[in-house]
Amino acid sequence: MQTPQLSVRELSIDDIAPLTQYWLSCTNEYLHGMGVDVNKMPAKEWWIQLLQQQLLTPHAQKQSFCVIWHLNDEPVGHSNINKIIPSQEAYMHLHIWKQSARKSGYGLQFIYKTLPFYFNTYQLQHLYCEPYALNPAPNKTLAKAGFTFLKEYITTPGFLNFEQPVNRWHLSRNAFMQLQHS
């Protein structure tokens, strides 16, 4: 059996269609499990415009920075950061598009491959992730990846979300550097 090949790269124009399709093809149940309010889901054209604008914006001015996850040269997910304050902090989001790639251990490997993009591109000192507290997959994966649990609290974490409990996870630059050398 061939060893799965995982790779990560920055968002490109070719990724707009599959990334948009991911958001628009998720079942309501799946979206709710991630903490998404299905009534807030934007139309296809909005997603396309948002992603095209992200590609045109220089790194230093981006409000969001996205990488695409590949399994055997096939795009299977993405991660992005927002609330970016260069040289300080950002907030990470994790999405595996393909059901066949979920619950496989790939999420942890993708996080490890993604962290250098965020810490190095933006010289971050702190990276946070705030998944829905009732969504076990990202919470377990972040713990395995070396993130520190800080707290659970109630908020509306993003424009797509309903008010919900979230878990705040943190990875410092020092912890990232230690991961790089282990």
TrEMBL record:
Gene3D superfamilies: 3.40.630.30. InterPro entries: Acyl_CoA_acyltransferase, GNAT_dom. It comes from the Bacteria. Residues 6-148 form the N-acetyltransferase domain. GO terms for molecular function: acyltransferase activity, transferring groups other than amino-acyl groups. This is GNAT family N-acetyltransferase. It comes from Limnovirga soli.
